[in-house]
Amino acid sequence: AQSVTQPDIHITVSEGASLELRCNYSYGATPYLFWYVQSPGQGLQLLLKYFSGDTLVQGIKGFEAEFKRSQSSFNLRKPSVHWSDAAEYFCAVGDAPGGSYIPTFGRGTSLIVHP
Amino acid sequence: DTGVSQDPRHKITKRGQNVTFRCDPISEHNRLYWYRQTLGQGPEFLTYFQNEAQLEKSRLLSDRFSAERPKGSFSTLEIQRTEQGDSAMYLCASSLGTESGANVLTFGAGSRLTVL
Questions:
Q1: Using CB atoms within 10 A as the burial measure, which of A67, A75, A107, B63 is most buried?
Q2: Which residue of B has its CA nearest to A42?
C-alpha cells in the first residue's frame, strides 16, 4: 500500500528566508506525486504535481519540488517565503495508470512565517 | 465554473442525530471523492465514485456512514447516529476520469461537523 511521510509537523521560517518541506513516499512503481496547500478555513489547493519527465517541477506561487527516486522523496522548496505562505502543506502520492487513483496524503506540515 | 461546492460549511449536532452533507463537483469531472480530516492530520480517504458507481467503499469508517451519487452529479454523505468521534472536517473533491487527470483532485472548502 502506498504511504506518505512528512517528518516535520511544524516549520518556522522568517519572511524572505528559503524554505524546504520534506516528503517521503512509499510506492511500488513510479508514483504520481503532489503538493497541496490548505489555508485556514479553506479547501486544499494544488501547488504542483509530478507525473513523469523532468524531476524538477514548477508550481504556483513560486514553489518547486524535486523528485528523487533514489531517496523516495519529493521535497517542496521556495527561495523566498512571504508571510502569506503561512499555511498547512500536504504531500500526496497517487497511483500510476491502472491503479485505483485514490491519492494518499501525508499528515501535513504547518508553516509558520515570522516577520 | 464555480469549483467544488459543499454544503453546509458547518454543522453542529447532538450525539445520536443523523447528518447529511452535500457536494457539487466541477461539472465536467466524473470522479468524486470523500475524505475526512481531523485536527492535525491529513485527509483520510473514505469513498469515491466514477459517475454514479461507487467504486470503493470499504474504507468508510463504519456502517453508520453511507454515500450516494444518484445521477452522477452531486453526492451526499450521510452519517447516522453520530458520535463525538465523528467530529471532523469532511472534504469532497472531484477529478477528471482520464488517466492523468484522475489523480488531480480539486477540493471543496469542506463541511465541518461538531458532535456535542
A1: A67
A2: B109
Nearest CB among A45, A103, A106 relative to B103 is that of A103
- Please judge whether A100 and B104 are an interchain contact, meaning their C-beta atoms are less than 8 angstroms apart: no
* Set of chain A residues whose Cβ sits within 8 Å of the Cβ of B95: 101
Contact B43 A107 (CB under 8 A): no
Mean pLDDT, range A90-99, rounded to an integer: 81
Q: Rounded to an integer, what distance in angstroms lies between the CA atom of residue B60 and that of residue B43?
A: 13
Cell numbers for A104: 494518499
B62-82 mean pLDDT: 94
Cα separations in angstroms, B104 against A60, A94, B33 = 15, 9, 11
Tens of pLDDT, residues A35-55: 999 998 888 999 999 988 889
pLDDT digits (tens, 9 = 90+) for A54-79: 899 999 999 999 999 999 999 999 99
